[in-house]
Design a protein that fits this description.
This protein has 15 helices and 16 strands. It is of the alpha+beta class.
Amino acid sequence: MKQFQLSSDSNLAIYQSPIDKEQDETINLNTLHEYDTQNTDMSKIKHKYVFCIKEIKDSDTSDNNNKVNLDYQSNQKRLKKKRRKHREKQKRKQKESDSESSSNSNNSSNSTDEDSENKEDEDDEIIIDVNERDFGLDLDVFDRFPTSKKPQSSKKNAKPVYHYHPQTQIRALSYNLKETWLNLKTHPLTVKHIDDKYTMMQDENKQFNLRCRRIIWPRNLQHMKDEFKYNLTDISSKWIWAILIIHGGKFAGAIYHGNKMILHKTLRRYVIRKGQGKRQVNHLSTSGVKAGSAGGYKRSWNEKKLLEEIREILSLWMDELSVKCDKIFIHAPGIYNQMTLYGNADEQSYLYPQQNGRMDEDLSEERLRTIKNKNKNKNTNLYRLYKKDERITQIPITTHGVTLKECERVHYWLSTSWLGLNKNTDNDD
């Protein structure tokens, strides 16, 4: 047996050597198990093992450190790559879910046009189509003129600012914007529907034209073919709208009187199976299997609870939805969401009875008064919307979520108007 004299500050590495090793056989340390001398109690290791001991020199430690650094860097690169792939996967899933929850819309624009737009106009791009920018200066028909581009609140989900124009753009106009708007409000305007999408309003001198969307007009005025007179102040003081969005176990609703939100409510329930992208009620209807898991029972219970809560809100808003609202804008894709608002065929025939192909309004009003008294009990919510109501209109743009902020964006999109000078007046000047 050979003995070696080592210094007290020398570093040693201990390896477990195979017992059946021949005498002249060389030892490859890379194939042997190395003990962790710092974190292992070597006294508990059995003495029958044969150990190989290696003295670690400074050059070896530097090589080991370099190897450790290289391994660390490669691991970090792998982690970054894995995280990047995970983020891309999440973005794809989010886009797929947004596309499923979005309604069919005619509002489309070219990608080249979107890339060329400035960041300052991102909010306007959401509610103004590219082709509509040629109509004139975009304004709000409900007299909402923002004075700053920044939101009033500094919170993350603060209400965005629409129809903002810098002072340099307003000063460059050939007319005074405030005076022109006041003159349009003080005198009745001549209104004419120019096509299926837009309506033109002009002053008495036909100097200015104000274009708006045709679908926002009340049902008795929306289908008029001849010209008629209307005051701009009546739009902001008399018009009442309701906006209801239901999708994916979420509900967002708001009622506006002019530009003021007088009622609003949002709900959310866990009804979508994680990783599947399908609601529990749709899963049960397609698979034919009853909910057997704990998550399935919870989602089924949430479906019933969400249905009761939405119908309770409709019952509380019964006066506004049945009588006061001039327009009701709805986005409720799917049979189950439609049934939540309108009920089944028996409920429709009871609340809105038909006689000779028309609704019996007197009998319907009597039954609505009856269920209104019953709705005072919170457990009884019998009110349903009339499926053939002419006031109900599908939201004509893509919805990006089921939130109160999205209801606000839809309201701004609907109330967008464009102020411009007539070409004849430009030539005279």
